[in-house]
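quick q for whoever's on today - can somebody do inverse folding on this one?? i tried earlier but teh output was garbage lol. tokens:
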């Protein structure tokens, strides 16, 4: 539970329906409220409208990619403080650097290993005052 008794809200920005469905169900079982955006533009819009506690951002997205979506989220005063975790199949050091330069707070590789992702999320949610007791 988060302060005020609310579940932590996760915005998952993922265009692959199978990946989105699997990860959102696994996070919901861990006690998170999950909302899903199917592309980068929708992700930026939903970050502002839904006020999530954390964003899980696929980097390879239609409309605008995850790097640009993250830049827009971090540039807007109302969403700048929301932690963003980059999710990408690219595991090169340069990909991590590129994600962090775009404003991502951390980075994880696909396929997602749930326990590793939960550790990253816990660290960021604790630092931002969000829920960390999943």
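ok took a stab at it. sequence:
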């Amino acid at each position: 539970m988060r302060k005020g008794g609310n579940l932590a809200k996760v915005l998952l920005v993922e265009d692959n329906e199978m990946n989105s469905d699997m990860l959102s169900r696994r996070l919901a079982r861990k006690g998170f409220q999950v909302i899903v955006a199917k592309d980068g533009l929708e992700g930026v819009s939903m970050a502002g409208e839904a006020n999530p506690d954390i964003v899980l951002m696929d980097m390879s997205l239609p409309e605008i990619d995850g790097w640009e979506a993250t830049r827009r989220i971090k540039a807007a005063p109302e969403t700048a403080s929301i932690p963003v975790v980059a999710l990408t199949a690219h595991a090169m050091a340069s990909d991590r650097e590129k994600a962090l330069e775009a404003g991502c707070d951390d980075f994880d590789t696909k396929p997602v290993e749930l326990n590793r992702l939960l550790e990253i999320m816990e660290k960021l949610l604790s630092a931002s005052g969000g829920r960390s007791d999943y």
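fwiw The first strand starts at residue 9 and ends at 13. also The mean pLDDT is 90. so keep that in mind when u check it
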